[in-house]
Structures are given as structure tokens and as C-alpha cells.
Design brief:
With 251 residues, the protein is an alpha/beta fold. It has one domain (15-44, 52-247): Aldolase class I (TIM Barrel), CATH 3.20.20.70. The protein has six helices and twelve strands. The protein has helices spanning 81-89, 108-113, 129-135, 157-170, 191-201, 222-232, and strands at 15-16, 18-25, 35-41, 62-64, 72-73, 79-80, 96-100, 120-124, 139-145, 178-185, 208-212, 238-240. The strands form two sheets. It has a ten-stranded mixed beta sheet, with helices on one face. A two-stranded antiparallel ribbon has the order 1-6. Strand 9, helix 4 (157-170) and strand 10 (178-185) form a beta-alpha-beta unit. Helix 3 (129-135) runs parallel beside helix 4. It is globular. 37% of the residues are buried. It binds S-adenosylmethionine (SAM), the ligand Nc1nc2[nH]cc(C(=O)O)c2c(=O)[nH]1, iron/sulfur cluster and magnesium ion. The site of magnesium ion (MG) has 2 residues, from loops.
């Protein structure tokens, strides 16, 4: 049994460093447009070259009390599970609570202690299988990224791929949980790599989403995305959905 530092302990953590809490609509993937509270944790175990999310401050969180106002209070970190429950319940009729980051699975101990009135929607890089095991019965939605990293970005590529597959196996779609995958596609994304990984996880997901990268200079040609979609359709229901929240300037 693996007993490394990222092996989950069995007790819940009562606090965590959170970079922001806000209310918006889900801007990515098949649930685009549903109203959500977003809880963005600090810290990440990866450094994706295209990442659009700055590393959050550890000292304080920013909390948008009125949705869309652009006005933030700055509660001190760490925040408790009770603080989070109070903040997200203030947002009214939400569909779910998006747990994002950074990498939320680095805070699995805290997530396992959350008791919220709304279902949990996990947004993860799917590379920490021990943490995934710990929270698998807490989350109702899993938006799992497939990270096709260049060899220079990982010490052990086989282990990275195994960890990804193990996360999807653990958090797979069931009667009580939806699980789908997103792949951020850039002009450097190799179709063979995408197809290999999607083939390996197809049995665990309800659909796959090809998400064009937001930086214009990194975008592939439209024909490339359509060709990739056609290949993926051999394995799983596949949609091309760009990030929508950036179109209308919401968080
Ligand atoms: C900021 S990440 C946080 C959650 C987790 N670490 C992950 O990567 O899934 C949230 C989502 O934004 C996507 N994303 C980040 N930068 C992007 C970009 N430049 N263009 C399109 N999607 C991007 C990620 O791939 C992921 O699906
Ligand atoms: N509106 C909106 N939708 C999102 N879906 C995933 C996001 C993320 O950064 O995890 C995100 C985000 O930051 N904003
Ligand atoms: S895993 Fe997610 S948060 Fe971390 S660097 Fe990649 S896109 Fe950004
Ligand atoms: Mg985002």
C-alpha cells in the first residue's frame, strides 16, 4: 500500500487556504450556464503552460458578496468549513458548488469535511488518485481534465498517465455521479495522445469536451479540432465547447 506524503489520512481538515469565493455560471463543458458558487483553493501540483489562473494569495481570500459586483471583501486565510457553508449559502438558488483551483484534490481532507446544502462539482487535473479515493462519495459532478503534458513537464510519464486513468476509474460516472472529461486543445496538442488517453478512460465518462485554449496565439486551426472530434467520436460522445464566461466578462 502506498504511504507517500499525498496518501490521504482518514480525518477531515477543518480549514484550508482559499484564493476566492464567488457566484457565477459554469462557463465550461456540458453544464455551461448553470448557476454555481465557486470555491477556488490555492496551490497546484502542476504548471500547465497555458494556465489562465494566477496562483492565489495564501494570506487572504477574496469573497464577492454580491454576484457580479466586482466588489470583494478579504477574509483571512485559512477558512473553515463553516465559513465556506455561510458564504456559498448567501448566493441563493445555485445548482452546485464548483470546487476548483489551483488543484482542489490537494485539499481532499477539507472537502471531505464540507457539509453543504448543494451538490459538489469537482474541477480537477485528475493526477492525485489517493486524494480522489478520499472524496469520491462526496462529489456529484466531476469535470476531469486530461493533461497531455510535454515530457519535460513530468518526471515519469507512465506514472502520470496511470494516475490519470486511476483518478477517472475512481471518480467514474455512476447513477449518483456524473463524470466527464475536458481536454484543452492547443496547436501543440497531438491527436494520437488525445485519442490514446480517451480510449483508456472512455468507459468511465459520460462525454468528452474539446476545449479550445483561450490564448489566440496558441489556438489550433478549426479543421484540426473538427478532425480530432471525428476521431474521438469512435470512442465517446465528444463536443467542442469553448470557455463561455470569458465572452461576457464574468468571473
Ligand atoms: C484553472 S483549472 C483549475 C482546476 C484544475 N487544476 C484543472 O486544471 O482542471 C480549471 C479549468 O480551466 C482550464 N483552463 C486553464 N487555462 C485555460 C486556457 N488558457 N484555455 C482554456 N482552458 C483553460 C483547465 O484546463 C481546467 O479545465
Ligand atoms: N464561469 C467560470 N466557469 C468556470 N469553469 C471552470 C472554471 C475554473 O476556473 O475552474 C471556471 C471559472 O473560473 N469561471
Ligand atoms: S492543473 Fe489546473 S490550475 Fe494547475 S496549472 Fe494546470 S490548469 Fe492551472
Ligand atoms: Mg477559470
Amino acid at each position: 500500500m502506498n504511504a507517500g506524503p499525498l496518501t490521504a489520512s482518514t480525518t477531515a481538515d477543518i480549514d484550508a487556504n482559499v484564493s476566492e469565493v464567488f457566484c457565477s455560471v459554469q462557463g465550461e463543458g456540458p453544464y455551461v450556464g448553470v448557476r454555481q458558487a465557486f470555491v477556488r483553493f490555492t496551490g497546484c501540483n502542476l504548471r500547465c503552460s497555458y494556465c489562465d489562473t494566477p496562483v492565489g494569495k495564501e494570506e487572504s481570500c477574496r469573497f464577492e458578496e454580491i454576484p457580479g459586483s466586482g466588489v470583494f471583501s478579504q477574509p483571512d486565510n485559512p477558512l473553515s468549513v463553516t465559513d465556506i457553508a455561510r458564504m456559498v449559502s448567501s448566493y441563493g438558488k445555485i445548482h452546485s458548488v464548483s470546487l476548483t483551483g489551483g488543484e482542489p484534490l490537494m485539499h481532499a481532507g477539507f472537502i471531505s469535511g464540507l457539509e453543504l446544502a448543494s451538490p459538489l462539482y469537482l474541477e480537477s487535473n485528475m493526477t492525485l488518485p489517493q486524494m480522489a479515493k478520499r472524496i469520491k462519495d462526496k462529489v456529484s459532478y466531476v469535470a476531469g481534465d486530461v493533461k497531455l503534458l510535454p515530457p519535460s513537464a513530468v518526471d515519469d510519464m507512465d506514472l502520470h498517465l496511470e494516475n490519470t486513468i486511476e483518478c477517472f476509474r475512481t471518480l467514474k460516472a455512476t447513477r449518483d455521479r456524473d463524470c466527464f472529461c475536458k481536454v484543452v486543445v492547443t496547436k501543440d496538442t497531438a491527436a494520437d495522445d488525445v485519442e490514446g488517453m480517451i480510449g483508456a478512460i472512455a468507459g468511465y465518462i459520460s462525454c468528452a469536451v474539446l476545449q479550445p485554449v483561450s490564448q489566440k496565439e496558441l489556438l489550433p486551426e478549426p479543421g484540426y479540432l473538427l478532425g480530432l472530434q471525428e476521431r474521438m467520436l469512435d470512442h465517446v460522445n465528444t463536443r467542442i465547447i469553448p470557455q463561455t464566461h470569458k465572452m461576457w466578462g464574468c468571473l
